[in-house]
Description:
This protein has 15 helices and 11 strands.
Amino acid sequence: MTSTSERDHAEQVYVWTWLPGHTEPVVAGLARVRGGRMEFGYGRSYLARPDAISLYGPEVPLQEGWIEPVGLLTMPGCLRDGSPDAWGRRVIESRMGVDENSLSEIGYMLESGSNRLGANDFQARPTQYESRRDTASLDELHEAARRLQEGRPLSTAAEEALVHGTTIGGARPKVLVDDGDGGQWIAKLSASSDSVFSVVNAEATALELARRAGIDVPESRVTRSLGRDVLLVRRFDRPSDGGRRHVVSGLTMAREDEVSARYVSYPGIFDVLREHGSQPEKVGRDLFDRIVFNMAISNTDDHARNHAAFWDGEHLRLAPAYDLAPGNRSGDTETQAMAFDRDGTRESTFAAAVRAAPVYGLAVPEARERVTRIVDSIHDNWDEAADISRLTRADKDRLWARQILNPATSYGYGSTSHATGASLQKHDTDLAGPDPTRPSRQPRGRTRGTNSTSSKTAGRGEGPGLTS
């Protein structure tokens, strides 16, 4: 834990990183706050390494000097991606006995655990790496998380274990666990607000359905802890060799933050992945499939932090899909968290997705084939996926044709498969709605910010000058 004096006066933090193929971190540079913005500079010793890579080239290129945040950001997005989000901050605040959002960003960085998203960690010193990590069991972490949700006091040991086991972002309760064989997992817990259906089992079912529909998702399974189901999701940023993989969020790729997240769209993320990606010919199809699948399961929480890509120092590659959780749905009309065409469309219907297909390099016939394949797969695998995920009969009945394959998703589409005909209560093409074969409208430029890859460098001095 960071000392009180260090925390109270911290205006800088040392960034350590795991290089590809290495199992131990090295100090990469220094982040410091100046004028309310966090700038970053690589250390001289790091720049001298033949195997050094940028933490994220489009934002903090490998160069000398202090690098300011791009655009209107207050800190580099690739560093913010490693900071705790809502649940992790709540845990830290509870342990420290402070008000909500009362710490500085560097304070949250230094108070959180070291086993965070991606390959970076934050330390108070450049000379010695100190891991802030505990080895509590799933049951111990689960009990601590449950007590925190219920507002009950925690022991000092439980508080420390929970802080160090909750460095992954997100708003829902989760902890990090090891399986004893070198595997690292995110354990997603039930929340006190889960009153309509079991969110844990529903997400487990959605992951299994996505896997069977050909969408890249992490390994997952449901286990029991303290008499409740827990969803275990294998971490895709932890390779089997003991190292760590650099990961950036969709929000970072789009050069936005939480304040400006409404400006982020699927096409914006697609453009970055196509420009800097190692698989530009494949990523459009992968993103289109994810859009369709999210619609099919009523996952309207598909915001930019729920998308990520690996960074290898030169290229981006789309990471497996995650946080595929069916959401509460009260009526027919739903919208996705991000627009999926260049005109701001968020309407959660297959017809709207098909109209946007040319944005992703797909012709309408191929897009319709992909919709049919995904819907048919969900229909054919629903029972088995739900059983594997321990979804109760009541929740199966509650979710089917409401969250899962809600008939409204096919409005204006016209069925071409037994799944859309039998399960979606087939809607003929003469229903009110736009023609899905109409050519996509021409792309329109952004009205805020830019997708340029240039970085603004302050050029003050030679950077932090780290020698360790």
